[in-house]
Every structure is written in C-alpha cells, then in structure tokens.
Amino acid sequence: MLVEGVSDQHAVEALAERRGRNLEADGVAVVPIGGAQAIGRFLTLYGPQGLDVRLAGLCDAAEEVDFRRGLERAGLGSELTRDDMERLGFYVCIADLEEELIRALGAATVEQVVDAQGDLGSFRTLQKQPAWQGRPVEEQLRRFMGSGGRRKIRYARLLVDALDLTQVPRPLHLVLDHI
User: Fold this and answer.
1) pLDDT per 10-residue tile (average), the chain, 179 residues
2) Which residues pair with 114 in a beta bridge?
3) Which string of DSSP letters, residue by residue, matches 56-91?
C-alpha cells in the first residue's frame, strides 16, 4: 500500500491492529513514498511494468492529480475518474487524513486526546494567534497537527486509537478493506 507519508502509514497500521489484522502476515507492506510527487517512481517499481504486485494507496485531495497521473503513466488506465481510482484501490482523503480523523472524532474528542498528551496548552497558544482566532476549532486542530515537528506522525496513531470503529473515515476504511 502506497501512502504519502509516515503519518498515513501509522494511521493505516493502527487501524489494522485495532481490527485484528496482521498486515505483515497478510503480506502487506504500507510504504510511505515521501510525498505524492514520488508516486510515479513507486508505481514503476511495484506496478505492472515492475514487480507487478497488488497495489492500493491513499492520498490527500490536493495530490489526487499526481496520483491519477501516476496511475495512468503506469498503464493502469486513462482519463481516470475518482471512481476509477477507487476500483484500482486508490482512495482520496478530503482534504487530508488529519481532517478526516478530526471530522470522524469531533473536535471535543480530539481536544481530549491532545490534553492527554500534555499538548493542550500549546494548542491554546495556537488558538490565540491572530491568524487563527475566530476560525473553526477543526481548522485550528488540523493546523496544530501539521505544526510542531513530528506532531502529525505522533497523533496519527493516537487519533485512530480514539476512533469508534463504526466511524472510521471512508478512505481509511476502504483502503484497508481493499488489501
């Protein structure tokens, strides 16, 4: 499974564990590709012109075009729609996986997770910044997750662990089911 970054890898692996799946035993590797621009290289390596392994993937909405173009260049279709991409096992997060998780959990639950990690003070500081005052708390949380070094990576697993398994974001649920 090809994912954009390490935070996506951690989220997928955490959900698999929560569902009782052993990805390694199933022969599944979740590979962070280092950004959507690298998708072509990985599809060449693992796709029909390379090792020809079964593929799946997860990307952010802003990188959908890169993934679509990569799939087409790898010989997996032409003029692909999002539905076509999903039939191939590639799913798009709106806007990104963090936003999907925040929406699924709700802002109050995410704040509880942040508080449990001792980061609520840092989050409150971000909320006081002029650029973030008055914005929806969900936007503030998404910005908070994306700032501060490796915070996004650390919180990916924590947010998945806090999920009600009946409320898993659609792209995360479907990509894991695809494999």
Assistant:
1) 96 97 96 94 94 95 96 95 97 94 97 97 96 96 87 95 97 95
2) none
3) -EEEEGGGHHHHHHHHHHTTS-SS--HHHHHHHTEE
